[in-house]
Amino acid sequence: MNGVRPPESVGVAIVGGGLMGREIAAALGRWPALVDHPVTPRLVGVADINPAALEWFRTIDTVEITTTDYRDLLADDRVDVVYVAVRHDLHQQIYVDVVEAGKSLLAEKPFGIDGDAARAVLAAVEAHPESFVRCSSEMPYFPGAQVALRYIASGALGEIVSARCSFLHASDLDRAKPSNWKRQARFCGQAGVLNDLGMHTWHVPLRLGWKPERLYGVLQDVVTERPGPDGTPVPCDTWDNAVVHSWVPQPGGKEFPLTTETKRIDPGQKNTWELEAIGMDGSVRFSTKNPKSVQVFGIVDVPGTGREQVWHQVDAGSQSCWPTVTGPNFESGFSDAILQMWAVFLAERHGSLGDRFGAARPEEAALTHVLYDAAITSHAERRVVSL
């Protein structure tokens, strides 16, 4: 009547009904919190090889398909978009199948168990432009992270002195924690923690154009065995911690050091994501450990003292990329970041992203494997690797 187009209805299916599958289902249930989004998603189907994992999803009234075979979802016209969260060794086959079925895909990191798998998925994406594909990376959608990103993009840093992006866990400090597939290279991949967490630390740098020319990797396999299903120790042959030191070119012919950290053993940390960028004209820091607080550096006149270097603290509030009904002075958390990632993913698929910070692209995900391989080579040979 008033000329306003109704939102596009999109059927979403989930492959992998574990922790992240349930998190995505919960986020889609909160969709009305978004203001004037051009898409209305409906969770219509779920697949998991474990029938028991499907029971939770059957309580969601929009779910019409539950199956132990993901191919049932790909053959169903009610499904437009597929989110996949499965073991890394299964990525290539399932991702390629989704793309070749003409469905859009939000794929979990690392976009394949290794570089060959990632390149195979990328080739399928290029052969099927009708399938819109992105890689999951939710941490940059904390409002404070967006404040920091806008600060960096504005040029306020001036000449960059250094930058760091980290993703930190601590649960593996417990040697009695049972082993799982992420601690086995045949399922997780030779890159270990880099495969598991690395995209969290590279999404922002790569989107900012910070592509390293050379790097040095420092990798640790700290806990080499853990209790198996029957309590008997089994080998854990994946990297627990990985620090990558790299050099990134910037205008003027100079370089700056970029450090990325992915750690399963960093005492006291619970899913902490951090971004720091230091420049000659300005600097900014953000950590999800203090999710409202963004630190911005400046030089100010202090009455009675003179000019001083000061780290200012700014409260970020609740608003991220896509506006929500939440009051701007309220707080935001992990579930809100998931909702924002899906908001930008479906908006970009619709052609309505604008200048918002988009989800990780397939070529960015594939490039991370080049970086991981270089880090492994660097660590093994104790040398800097050129890219």
From TrEMBL:
Residues 11-128 form the Gfo/Idh/MocA-like oxidoreductase N-terminal domain. Keywords: Oxidoreductase. Residues 149-245 form the GFO/IDH/MocA-like oxidoreductase domain. InterPro entries: Gfo/Idh/MocA-like_OxRdtase_N, Gfo/Idh/MocA_oxidrdct_glycsds, GFO_IDH_MocA-like_dom, NAD(P)-bd_dom_sf. It holds the Pfam family GFO_IDH_MocA_C3. It comes from the Bacteria. PANTHER family: BCDNA.GH03377. This is Gfo/Idh/MocA family oxidoreductase.
